[in-house]
TrEMBL record, chain A:
It is found in: Cell membrane. It comes from the Bacteria. Belongs to the ABC transporter superfamily. Residues 12-263 form the ABC transporter domain. Its main location: membrane. Keywords: ATP-binding, Cell inner membrane, Cell membrane, Membrane, Nucleotide-binding, Translocase, Transport. It comes from Mesobacillus foraminis. It is a peripheral membrane protein. GO terms for biological process: peptide transport. This is Peptide/nickel transport system ATP-binding protein. CDD domains: ABC_NikE_OppD_transporters.
TrEMBL record, chain B:
The lineage of its organism: Bacteria, Bacillati, Bacillota, Bacilli, Bacillales. Keywords: Cell membrane, Membrane, Transmembrane, Transmembrane helix, Transport. Its main location: membrane. The chain crosses the membrane at residues 34-55, 97-122, 134-155, 161-180, 211-233, 269-292. SUPFAM superfamilies: MetI-like (SSF161098). This is Peptide/nickel transport system permease protein. Signal peptide: none annotated. GO terms for cellular component: plasma membrane.
Length: 339, 302
């Protein structure tokens, strides 16, 4: 995106967010001291393996954490000057779907099987607008058209089971953009779709983003998607942001060993066929998370003895490129981005 | 070329309106012969019962000493009972009471059970614990003893039938609440529930509009089973003399005359009609329930 965009005030600001789940009475941070901000019109990608806290992060922003065991323990989520984690449920309901909306991973289960497509689309409109039934129907047809569905007049009266996965994801997108939100959180929107449909959906998201000038948080574990879509990338590992940069420099100059390995794991067309490279081991579970030191130390090929003793901070190493790894701490004068 | 034209004509023949899950279930149910026959039987029973004043001119309460314990004849189709009252007339009026008690208890029980179960299941946490402990508490009441005591307490002060309906309902909603709660617990994990919250639906809206329609099939099937149970409960209590007040005929009341060995052995026309009425009604309700269960289960294909 242009530099102009980056100078505006941020739309969403997350500061020191800690989201924890209670297991056997004790709390474990699934998202640990995460800070970032999103400017209007920006597409921010969040990548990481499964279990890195990407989805928990998005649920925290939407205040959709499972009641009872998931909880925001500290930190601030500020959206347009309003602190979302201080709002009551009723106040949050006014924001959800109107200012911030969300697309889910599984289009097959994200639509209610007992209602028609049109009914579910109109529900968003009725929730947030004063609109007559006839107008709502017209608007829902227009919305379906805008997400590239070819026979919207018929589709409004159909049920979810009559639609393919790609179509359902389009309907989900139509629902999400119905009230022209300022921020769209897309939680792995293409993971459940096949490759050709994936490209179409991404294309659609990008078009809608340009037309409506909204910001998108795109959660994915597909680096190809990131390269295609995003202005800025957050790499998450075990609940922490370990690298933050614009999409281009992340691909040309990955800094954190984890990012390097992630990029190395992408199969390449021009290489000899052989074993796919992968990262040894797994993300430690919440209960087994090392308390001090770098959380990637156990799997890191460049590990040093002090890695497990010193907790690295996310520091800006180059203009617009921050990384949290002790390999880079001495390379520059300390410029702590976050505690 | 030939092939494409055939396909196009086929496309045109397709029904335009898309079938809702309910329409599919209805079609499946209509094809189930046993369930349809049972439904027809129930409708006939209901019509006969509710049109009783027009079908017979006999007085249900008047004791007629001259016509005690008459065998079936042209004048009294099913004979008369020990007080000289026409059995056929009492059977029709009795059906009325049985059906009214059955339907109103079922509706009340379903209403209470659904509200409490849905709230407990959706909100979870402390609300769930409190509502479910209350449910356990109600379920531990000894049913028969409770009904007998309450009936004795309110006897003569309130409309006996109303007391009976309220007491039965209040003691029976527990199991429905548990079933609804467990269904809601499973259903609320679905992504479309989170999607509904994410478009700004209030908890009330999520429960009523998104969760309940998805558990409605269970509630309906549960309702038919309850309906049958409630008729049995009413008959049982009336047979024991603790149900419907004695002056109102009900199938259970009528059966209680079979207490006497003389009636049981040599005057079968007095107790066989209500016994058969209860049996066949319960059977028919269960067949209808079974049919509904099949029709509403997306996995059963017929």
């Amino acid at each position: 995106m242009s530099n102009l965009v980056h100078k505006e005030a941020s739309l969403l600001e997350v500061k020191n967010l800690e989201t924890a789940f209670s297991i056997d009475g004790a709390y474990y941070n699934a998202v640990d001291k995460v800070s970032f901000s999103i400017k209007p019109g920006q597409i921010v990608g969040v990548v990481g393996e499964s279990g890195c806290g990407k989805s928990v992060l998005s649920l925290s922003i939407m205040q959709l954490l499972p009641k009872g065991n998931g909880e925001i323990r500290s930190g601030e989520i500020t959206f347009e000057g309003v602190q979302l984690n201080q709002l009551s449920d009723t106040e949050m309901n006014r924001i959800r779907g109107r200012d911030i909306s969300m697309i889910f991973q599984e289009p097959m289960t994200s639509l209610n099987p007992v209602f028609t497509i049109g009914y579910q689309l109109q529900e968003v409109l009725f929730n947030h607008m004063k609109i007559s039934k006839g107008d709502a129907r017209q608007k829902s047809i227009a919305l379906l058209k805008s997400v590239g569905i070819s026979r919207p007049e018929k589709l409004v009266d159909e049920y979810p089971h009559q639609l393919s996965g790609g179509m359902r994801q389009r309907v989900m997108i139509a629902m999400a953009i119905a009230c022209q939100p300022k921020l769209l959180i897309a939680d792995e929107p293409t993971t459940a779709l096949d490759v050709t449909v994936q490209a179409q959906i991404l294309e659609l998201l990008k078009t809608i983003q340009e037309v409506n000038d909204m910001s998108i948080i795109l959660i994915t574990h597909d680096l190809g998607v990131i390269a295609e879509m995003c202005d800025e990338v957050l790499v998450m590992y075990a609940g922490r942001i370990i690298e933050r940069s614009d999409a281009e420099s992340l691909f040309y100059k990955p800094m954190h060993p984890y990012t390097e390995l992630l990029l190395g794991a992408i199969p390449k067309m021009d290489e000899e066929a052989g074993m796919l490279s992968s990262i040894e081991g797994m993300v430690p579970s919440l209960k087994n998370m090392p308390e001090t030191g770098c959380r990637f130390a156990l799997r890191c090929p460049k590990v040093k003895p002090e890695c497990s003793a010193v907790t690295p901070l996310l520091e800006e190493v180059e203009e617009g490129h921050s990384v949290s790894c002790i390999l880079y701490e001495t390379s520059m004068p300390r410029k702590g981005v976050k505690p | 070329m030939q092939v494409t034209t055939v396909k196009e004509s086929q496309l045109k023949l397709k029904p335009v309106k898309s079938t809702s899950p309910w329409a599919l279930a209805r079609r499946k149910f209509l094809r189930n012969k046993l369930a349809m026959a049972s439904l027809l039987f129930l409708i006939i029973v209901a019509i006969l019962s509710f049109l009783a004043p027009y079908l017979t001119t006999q007085d249900i309460a008047r004791i007629n000493i001259g016509e005690m314990s008459l065998a079936p004849s042209g004048e009294h189709w099913l004979g008369t009972d020990k007080s000289g009252r026409d059995v056929f007339t009492r059977l029709l009026y009795g059906g009325r009471i049985s059906l009214i008690v059955g339907i109103s208890c079922t509706l009340l029980v379903i209403l209470m059970g659904t509200v409490i179960g849905a709230m407990a299941g959706y909100f979870g946490g402390i609300i769930d614990s409190m509502l479910m402990r209350f449910t356990d508490f109600v379920l531990t009441f000894p049913f028969t003893v409770f009904v007998i005591v309450l009936n004795a307490v309110f006897f003569g002060k309130l409309n006996g039938l109303l007391v009976l309906i309220l007491v039965i309902s209040f003691l029976s909603w527990g199991s429905v609440a548990r079933i609804v709660r467990s269904k809601i617990l499973a259903e609320k994990e679905n992504e479309y529930i989170m999607a509904a919250i994410s478009i700004g639906c209030s908890p009330f809206k999520v429960i009523v509009k998104h969760l309940l329609p998805n558990v409605l099939s269970t509630i309906i099937v549960q309702g038919t089973i309850l309906f049958a149970t409630m008729i049995v409960v009413e008959s049982g209590l009336s047979y024991l003399g603790f149900g419907v007040p004695a002056e109102i005929p009900s199938w259970g009341n009528m059966l209680s005359s079979a207490n006497e060995p003389d009636v049981l052995q040599s005057k079968p026309w007095i107790w066989i009609p209500p016994a058969l009425a209860i049996t066949f009604t319960i059977l028919a309700i269960n067949f209808v329930g079974e049919g509904l269960k099949d029709a509403l289960n997306p996995r059963s294909r017929r």
